[in-house]
UniProtKB/TrEMBL annotation, chains A, B:
GO terms for biological process: L-leucine biosynthetic process. This is 3-isopropylmalate dehydrogenase. Residues 5-360 form the Isopropylmalate dehydrogenase-like domain. It is an enzyme of class 1 (oxidoreductase). HAMAP family: LeuB_type1. Binds 1 Mg(2+) or Mn(2+) ion per subunit. Its EC number is 1.1.1.85. Keywords: Amino-acid biosynthesis, Branched-chain amino acid biosynthesis, Cytoplasm, Leucine biosynthesis, Magnesium, Manganese, Metal-binding, NAD, Oxidoreductase. Belongs to the isocitrate and isopropylmalate dehydrogenases family. LeuB type 1 subfamily. Homodimer. It is found in: Cytoplasm. Catalyzes the oxidation of 3-carboxy-2-hydroxy-4-methylpentanoate (3-isopropylmalate) to 3-carboxy-4-methyl-2-oxopentanoate. The product decarboxylates to 4-methyl-2 oxopentanoate. Its cofactor is Mn(2+); Mg(2+).
Amino acid sequence: MANPSILILPGDGIGPEVMAEVRKIIDWFGAKRGLTFDVSEDLVGGAAYDKHGTPLTDETMERAQEADAVLLGAVGGPKYDKLDFAVKPERGLLRLRKEMDLYANLRPAQCFDALADFSSLKKEVVAGLDIMIVRELTSGVYFGEPRGIFTEGNERVGINTQRYTESEIARVARSAFELAKRRSNKVCSMEKANVMESGILWREVVQKVRDEEYPDVELSHMYADAGAMQLTRWPKQFDVIVTDNLFGDLLSDLAAMLTGSLGMLPSASLGAPMKNGRPKALYEPVHGSAPDIAGQGKANPIACILSFAMALRYSFDQGDEADRLEAAVETVLADGLRTADLMGPEGGKPVSTSEMGDAIVKALDASV
Amino acid sequence: MANPSILILPGDGIGPEVMAEVRKIIDWFGAKRGLTFDVSEDLVGGAAYDKHGTPLTDETMERAQEADAVLLGAVGGPKYDKLDFAVKPERGLLRLRKEMDLYANLRPAQCFDALADFSSLKKEVVAGLDIMIVRELTSGVYFGEPRGIFTEGNERVGINTQRYTESEIARVARSAFELAKRRSNKVCSMEKANVMESGILWREVVQKVRDEEYPDVELSHMYADAGAMQLTRWPKQFDVIVTDNLFGDLLSDLAAMLTGSLGMLPSASLGAPMKNGRPKALYEPVHGSAPDIAGQGKANPIACILSFAMALRYSFDQGDEADRLEAAVETVLADGLRTADLMGPEGGKPVSTSEMGDAIVKALDASV
Ligand SMILES: [Mg+2]
Ligand SMILES: [Mg+2]
């Protein structure tokens, strides 16, 4: 059997330098755990525009469709701000998400004990936090038609359409229930069924999928505004949260900020299973391309490394090895290693991007 | 000139008992500050249904339209859960908002120093917090047409329509800028202009109103998901936030939860100016009718009392007297008085609803 394949798209800004650390990790798993991947690399975003005049070529798109997993760094930078909308770096990422039909966006909000002080929330509220928000990513009010700015009488009106079909709701609900089975078997679905018909259908379909296909998973429903409150009050009450594109946009960012360290957070965007049973999958850090610190060895590679841990877990069914990698990250943090973004008011000397990567490799070595 | 009029609608559950304390405060301002109001009282919600078979009679609706300010307690309770949708207690409140066309919902998030420990956020993040969210309340995706659950091919689709006209945006923007002039002259407008055309129009119109009518007010724009993050990270960066119905629904509840004490929070819903220059206005606490503790003297009357302070400020142009009332509340809290909902883990003996009201009257006495 051929090795599973990973397409790496480092992108712009700090993308290449954090991805270089991920390469070290991938190599480690090949050398020490017999997990060998066919790794190839290509361009996306401004880097692709600079070479090809487009943020994503058809050839790269095709390679992404064929890869078992795509690992992306970050895209964008001030150099590209004035470009036409159609060739902006972000369009490369959006094309990937759209053509791969990545409908389930997995946004973990995890708070490492060693970093709990970075949160604006009290330590006991966030220490050990480990929740997962599943956001529907390909439909809803950001995509529905009709949309636009129209003239009515003597004024203009801005219109967008929230729109969900039963099958769109059912497939992302299944993603959430599958995740729950690997975690605490508990899902909370959020919408505004009290004032939106799309929310009524959402609630009904999620409940039906649970009753017919996942009777062992505990399902609750919450209005999205109450969800925002409860995430703020006591986030540990949740495990998996499933919600639509718009509510997920706000709630996943809110949950990320609870942890206090955005530079630490990975994400996965998953689509339908391919022929080999693996889901279409794109993994990327939540943080951006940080052009202000690019090329200086200051970037924190952990979010990108944890994105690879998610790939191990969700694309390659290597949950134990994902645990190992996450534990290695936890170890170096507990040892006090900090990149510049993690320096607290107490000061100290930050480590460089590659020193952080090397330390994680060393912790992996110690784990076997 | 006739005295300004206030229509009191105590409603259900704890509504009547918290409103009884507000009556003491209103009486105090008449006796001690020469601010005499024509106060009348009527039924709304379940209480109206019990007597008239409807949660709001046409006569009460008419009186509300004519009042200079409406003060509402709370509506609803388990006794009415099985009623037809059209006569549920909440319909009375919705009818008031709709027929009075109360398009600007003012939701202050204030954190009294004495209660900062109740927040899930660190004390330094929330102590002294004083922000105001202005939520558009009569349009947007909760009201737009088409809406419903339809059949397409062999499945159903849930549809709602986000819809804002220029004039709807402009009028609520004006409410926010007017408020800013009484506060720190600073407004942040939130939408999702990056992915929604209704957000693009929102941003453009808010900016235009500011440039043409309020050039001295500092205006910034933020995407609503970033807004959720920033509210969580460092809420004191904001003063007045203006946003649409849906984003305001989530963000105002999030901001309320930052303070940690929902039982303390008032609200105002304002419409267009009446002939006398006063806006149509409904004031009510954010909390609900709390049927589980109704009639036991356990309810916290402060949110309802602070709603009257908002009436003093926004309907009767008595900002100094509103300050006086808010300071009196702060005094009793600093003195350690706590109703049952404000008892911390350290325990102590809670005061009753009327003891809290009496203490605030006493603090008012001491202020003159
Ligand atoms: Mg977002
Ligand atoms: Mg709400």
